Amino acid sequence: MKITFKSEANAEAIAYLGFEGSAIPASAKAADEASQNALSKAAEAARFEGKAGQIVEVLAPAGSNASRILIVGLGKEDKADDRTYENAGASLVKKLLVSGAKSLDIVGVEAGQASARLALGARLASYRFDNYRTTLKDDAKPTLSEVGVVGASTKDAEAAWVRLSATAEGTELARDLVNEPPNTLHPESYAERIKELEALGLEVEVLDEPAMAKLGMGSLLGVGQGSVKGSRLVVMKWNGGKDKDAAPLALVGKGVTFDTGGISLKPGLNMQDMKGDMGGSAAVVGAMKSIATRKAKANVVGLVGLVENMPDGNAIRPGDILTSAAGKTIEIQNTDAEGRLVLVDVLWYAQEKHKPRAIIDLATLTGAILVALGDEHAGVFSNNDEFAAQIDAAGKAEGETVWRMPLSSTYDKQIDSDFADMRNMGGPLAGSATAAQFLGRFIENDTPWAHLDIAGVAWRSGKNRPMEAGWASGFGPRLLDRIVADNFED
């Protein structure tokens, strides 16, 4: 989708935005007069009141160079925020994407930030994953390829768009990765795909199984040992800060490219969705692309553990004891509680090799988080109140919201083991909290740390979410980039 900021509307389709309370948007009055009140008559007939989400489409009347005109409601002016403009831009694109119109201009917003948010909504709503579709009919193929945002503050809009367009690229990459089928996106091919980001200036290092075995990563390697695909640990480094040696922010992602559950086999119903069990890693990879694309003035390192959890004769079993890179032993209660086994070795490596100033890990870790929060918020667990507040603020600013959940030593008894230092599952109660408590045992020296359980938000229905096409949401890059921009840049 090509995005431009301009001072005059001249597209095939023109949309006029207005707030609640007017019979027709102020931005459309000149066009209405030129059409001998055809627009206001259409708005009246459609009972248009300017409420958020209202759209009236009119075949362009005489005197207009456009082929169609749309009147769009933004809701109450005093309630307008970034989401208002994003959703307006997204709703318009969804309406016109396969309509036959090739270009759209949006009129009615003067502020540069609001214009950029309109553009972001339009860009993300245009996302499609048609890579494997060979029989799409012409009328189902996208036609809309260009969106212009018309306003006086084009320079301000372009300046705001620099960061937002970078986050859009990261979000689109995250969606692509989560949508890919597991026969094409497995640990080895995934690592190769991440290597392509070196073109943006990222330093990318890939550790294979022998390298991880030498480091003692028995926990991560244990998860992948039932697969014919070799596990990988990929490190993406961005040194954009003034002090290149300053401690970075570490972003850690779970990358289980397919999760059968292993020997503790999952039910067959909806198992195909387990191709998305690498959503945490996709968030990190997408964020690193965003950070590198906009040349962020920060030191950030992204680390993803890539494995496939399969049930063959070499797979780990319930009752096995694995030794992590940190030297701590883990009794396997259930091989389907595998994501935390991957993460702890990556968390150890992040701390051992990069000495980060703070750590955020993201994972589609537990079904229990869906029970608690549904698909509206990611759960955040943190050992640091200030860091948790920064993440919460960034989530609200970008519309990728989190909800703080408890960490407590009272959960430790659920993951203590009679045979090892700990066990990988705490039982049926407080499943998300015990998983986070397990990860917290591997955080050293009181390093500020947050665990984001994104199992409820990494894939979901696009219904009532104008910027999402459905299934892979691309959750994470916008949130992580905003955390960096607000708290870790020079």
UniProtKB/TrEMBL annotation:
SUPFAM superfamilies: Macro domain-like, Zn-dependent exopeptidases. It is an enzyme of class 3 (hydrolase). Residues 334-341 form the Cytosol aminopeptidase domain. One of its GO terms (cellular component) is cytoplasm. Binds 2 manganese ions per subunit. It is found in: Cytoplasm. It holds the Pfam family Peptidase_M17_N. Mn(2+) 1 binds at D259, D336, E338. Keywords: Aminopeptidase, Cytoplasm, Hydrolase, Manganese, Metal-binding, Protease. Its cofactor is Mn(2+). The active site is at K266, R340. The keyword Manganese applies. Mn(2+) 2 binds at K254, D259, D277, E338. Its main location: cytoplasm. One of its GO terms (biological process) is proteolysis. GO terms for molecular function: manganese ion binding; metalloaminopeptidase activity. Presumably involved in the processing and regular turnover of intracellular proteins. Catalyzes the removal of unsubstituted N-terminal amino acids from various peptides. PANTHER family: CYTOSOL AMINOPEPTIDASE, LEUCINE AMINOPEPTIDASE-RELATED. Belongs to the peptidase M17 family. HAMAP family: Cytosol_peptidase_M17 (MF_00181). This is Probable cytosol aminopeptidase.
